[in-house]
Amino acid sequence: MRSRVWAGTAAVVFGGLLAAGCGGAGKGKETADANAGKAGSSAYPVSVTDCAGARTTFSAAPARIVTSNASSLELLLRLGAGDKVIGTGFPPGRGTLPGALDAQARNVKVLSRSVIPKEKLLGSGADLYIDTFASMGSMGGGMGDAPTAAEFKAAGIKHIYLKSTACAAQSKDPVTDFSAVEADITSLGAVTGTRARAKEIVAGMKKKVDAVQKAVGGTAESKRPTYFFFDYDAGTKQPTVVCNRQIANAVITLAGARNVFADCDGDYKQVGWEDVIAKNPDWIQLGVRNRGSAAANEKAFDEAEHWLRSNTATTGLKAVREGHFLRIGSEPTTIAGVENADTVEAIAKTLHPGKVG
Known about the structure:
By secondary structure, the chain is of the alpha/beta class.
């Protein structure tokens, strides 16, 4: 599996599923999902599982949280648990998060601009580490010298995963909905004692997606426009495409389109431009990462579009000839989170004008 370190957003995503609540844990114990609507100490203990099914149980809400990167940090900020975050790795780029969340993120101590060094993480004073990365044991040396389970335990740090990103590439089935993302939000809400807010967030996502599905969900597969996510910042020499285990596949599918690389099992894959030409997409999303300002973002979109229009390998593509470009950033499309629902709505409005309000 190939790591994706995004300089613009300072986020690392390994394709996969994120942290969902586990099954029943016996009398007196309830899972994160079961407790989603409850509040107060009576809602504990709460248990969540990792990608392999190993259980972590909380008897109370954690007070000192460290996040591995921007995606888990953003979810905590949205849940209203930002005051419990004492540090993060891969911090979000300035302007990446919307509104007040950006200012809150600036106040979180940056433990590393990339992977948090083992010694710093273990000595951080955290009682919980939320990991957006895939299982450390399967990463080789790409993510540095990660703490072992025994070392986390000795330091008094509980270790859980955002399963919608950390585990998805291991899934046997394509990602076509937001159930894993919603499960992560529900689990984090249960763990941090913000269940009511988690319920509101999930309901808001469902409302947007359901409205789009009502408008375009019945469109026959053959009538849906084909769609290519052009990851401009991943490099143009050899395109990197989103496959069917990446959350972008769900975003594209729910918006009433067909991911031209949905036949690719996994999260990301490098292909040749001849493969893109063979797909000849109806629409192309200019997937650039947030540069920190609207002007800088527009400049990046302009550069991506210019490259497609001027490159001999892509100038003949149907989407390029017809100017069918969508200027929607990478982060809300390929990072599992709340804004995935907004992206579904934005894509659907462009591809199905008049049907989606």
